[in-house]
Structure formats: structure tokens, C-alpha cells
Amino acid sequence: MARKLFGTDGIRGTANVEPMTAETALKVAMATGARFRRGDHRHVVVIGKDTRLSGYMLEPALTAGFIAMGMDVVLVGPLPTPAIAMLTRSLRADIGVMISASHNAYQDNGIKLFGPDGYKLSDEIEAAIEAQVENGAGPRAEPAHLGRAKRLEDAGGRYIEFVKASLPRRLRLDGLRVVLDCANGAAYKVAPTVLWELGAEVFPLGVSPDGLNINRDCGTMSTKAMQQEVMARRADIGLALDGDADRLLVADERGRLIDGDQLMALIATAWHREGRVAGGGIVATVMSNLGLERHLQGHGLALYRTAVGDRYVVERMRAEGCNIGGEQSGHIILSDHSTTGDGLIAALQILAALVERGESASRACRVFAPVPQLLKNVRFGNGAAPLEHSSVKKAVAAAEKRLGGGGRLLIRKSGTEPLIRVMAEGEDEALVAEVVAELCAAIRAASSDSGDSQAAE
Question: How many domains does the chain have?
Fold first, then answer.
């Protein structure tokens, strides 16, 4: 069946507008409960959320749905997405649910589902849940067998200790001055605590959520404040998380931004020296810079590329036996520690490399010379994405010819927003900029021709 609810990272949309309504959340919970209800043991669901106002609407709806199917619900409140994955396994739960739209603004929200192994659900299971939503969840629990709900008061403490354990025991962060931007999101309490307890001097930003300010002018989506604070505080490094803390970006002591490709390269290089890299390489998406691939090849490591989406990265990691994977945007999955992207665990590996090497962030985190690359977004309206328009196809063919064999072109529709992402890469930076500008213009024009006149970069 065609997927109507699930995108590349669960279900996502505008809060209180279908499909992100209390009614649909209830149906999804009941359908998911029916799918995972096996045997006669007491079934358990862990539900966490970020700091969006709409979480107060979706959390009780999901809770009611699971209870109606005879499943007990453990509520943990605002915690990072990777904490929900960890707690699902730790509590031997049947399902984990994270209510979050990640890096999106507060108006959006989402539902991410984890299986009992702590991994995000496969396309096949998501399709089966969709079908169950369409056809009805099936038998509900008898009155005497309804589930119960309770709060796990020490959930944050459990996650804090879990994250701290990922730093090698021989190391401490004493003396490090760290600016930490929590995006007014899910990690606003736990992230500063982790770094402080490990010895760092922490200068927190984005730790005053009000339900509406998540990701607003802060976090990975707007790193300017973090970069400026690094220089103002004369800090050693700046760390920026997104709203659900599964993504990390870094600024060096000069306030210069470092993306996920460089961070993966640093971790892979450090682990390779210790003989810890599994699977003969790392997994990244088609968006990752060619310079990363060349750097890894120079160390005898492979770069396995996947479609965009951390779930696809994880699937390929499991298939290849790799323990490092991620995305240029800052999703970094270190499977020795976590089943999904974890910005805090990734941050500790970066800080560990700085401590071990005794180097500045500007030196340690600039691992390879990136090939010139440019990414721009084109927003389109409610109609179909204009990628099939003949003028766009013609523009793409011309762009590929101009870039030649040494360049790369990637045009794709976002799985979470009404955007067309246009990325070009090549040795000639000016040519890359020209190609991207021409393609964006062609897509806007095609969108306008098809009635989607709202397109804009």
C-alpha cells in the first residue's frame, strides 16, 4: 500500500492538523499495540516527548490508545529520542514512542516508533501499522485487562548515567570550557548535567523551553548564538543539539562551524587507531562530502552510502557490521553505544578526542579538505513536487553535463517538509554555485507553472 502516514522518520505534520491530531494519534497507538501484542505477558510501552506545546495533546491520546489495547504505559516526559530507544530496551518494553518533530519549529510535531530492540521500525512494519489504522485495530482489551499508566521519575538519571558510560573511563573533561546549546528542546536538563558531572565548565544556551521556542534561533538549525558565545566565553568548543537531541553540530574555539562529515571523520580516525572500527568502514548518506570518502580511503576504510535518513543508515550499518554511521546534518550513530543517533554520545567522542590528543578543536576537528558543495532548498505548495516537469529534467541533464564526471548532483524531495533539496558538488566552487542557482530557478518556475506558486528558497 502507498504510505500516507509514515515518512522518512516516523509520522510528522502540523500539530492539530491531520495526521498530527489526537484522533490519529489514538488510532496509531491502537494499531501499533495490536501489531506488537504477542503472548500473555504484561505489555509495556515507553512514551517520551520533547518540549513542544502540542506534546500535551499527543501524549494522552497515545497513552489512551495503548491502554485501550491492554498495554501498560511508562511516561518519562521530556527526554532525547535516543533516551527513549535506550529505555525501551532497558525496561524490556514492547514499544518505544517519541513525540517529536526533531529540528522542525514548534508548529510541527511527530511520532517516532521503536521496537523492543530499540531500533526504529522497518518500512514493512510501518506499512502494516498503516493498514491496521485504515482497517481498525481489532479487538480491544476487556475492562479487567485495560492497561495502566505511570511515570518513571528517574528516567533522566538513568539516561545521564548511560551517556556518561560512553566516555572512556580513563578520561575526564576537567578544564574544558564548553558552550552547549540545547535548542530549548528535549535535552535541556540532561545534557548540561552530563557534561558538568564529567568535569567540564558548561555555558548552557537554549535551556528555557516555553513550548513555543524549540529550535527557534538556537540549536543545530541556528548556530549563530552558540558560535558567538564560544568566542565571548573564550570556550574550547561549542556543541549544538537539535530539538530531540539526536543531532549534533560543533563550533571550534574560533567560532567556526564543523559539520557531521568532519565529526564522523574524527571519530572514525580515532577509533581506527585503536582498532575499533568495525565493518571495514563507515556508513553515510548520498549527501556526505566526497572529501570524507577520499579521507577514509586514505586510511583503508570504505564509505558505504545510503538514502537520506538515519533509519537507512542504521539498516546499512547492521547489514555491513559497521559501528559508525551518520549524516552530514549531524545525526551520528555509534552502535557500540546506541541504536539510533545520539548527539550527546557523539559529543563525548569528540571531546574525548580533544582530551586524548591535547589539541584545539580547530585542529582536531578539521580532518579533511571538503570538496566544494552547496545545498539549497526550494519550497513548493500543496501540489505534487515539480521534479517530473520536462523543464526540470532538461535543467538537470544540462547541470550534470556541466559538472562532468568529477562532480555530483543530487535532487530529492524532503521526507519531512514540502521542500526540494538541491545539492551539487565539484572541484570548481563557482560552477557549483551556478548549477545550484539554475536548478533552483528551474524548479521554482516549474512549480509556478503547475500551480504551486508558493515556491521559494
Answer: 4
In degrees to the nearest 10, what's the CA dihedral of 370, 436, 407, 256?
A: 0
CATH of the domain at 185: 3.40.120.10
- Same domain, residue pair 267 and 242: no
The answer to whether 439 touches 382, Cβ cutoff 8 Å, is no
Long-range contacts for 142-149 (Cβ within 8 Å, ≥24 apart)? 142/70, 145/70, 146/67, 146/68, 146/70, 147/43, 147/66, 147/67, 147/68, 147/69, 147/70, 147/71, 147/72, 147/73, 148/67, 148/72, 148/73, 149/63, 149/67, 149/72, 149/73, 149/74, 149/75
Give the span between the Cα atoms of 44 and 272, in whole angstroms.
39
Q: pLDDT (tens digit, 9 = 90+) per residue, 56-108?
A: 999 999 999 999 999 999 999 999 999 999 999 999 999 999 999 999 999 99
Question: Could you tell me the residue range of the domain that residue 73 belongs to?
Answer: 6-153
- Give residue for cell 558538488: 425
Give the number of C-alpha atoms closer than 13 A to the C-alpha of residue 255, restricted to the C-beta side.
12
Final residue in a domain of this structure, among 305, 324, 343: 343
Neighbours of 291 (CB within 10 A): 19
The residue written with cell numbers 551518520 in the block is 326
Any idea what DSSP says for residue 141? P
Q: Catalytic positions, please?
A: 102
> What confidence tens digit (pLDDT) does each residue in 159-193 have?
999 999 999 999 999 999 999 999 999 999 999 99
Written as nine digits, the cell of 223 is 548556530
- Rg over alpha carbons for the chain, rounded to the nearest Å, is 22
pTM for the full predicted model: 0.89
Q: Which helix (H) or strand (E) holds 209?
A: none
Instruction: Tell whether 132 and 178 lie within a shared domain.
Output: no
Residue whose C-alpha is closest to residue 214's, from 361, 368, 104: 104
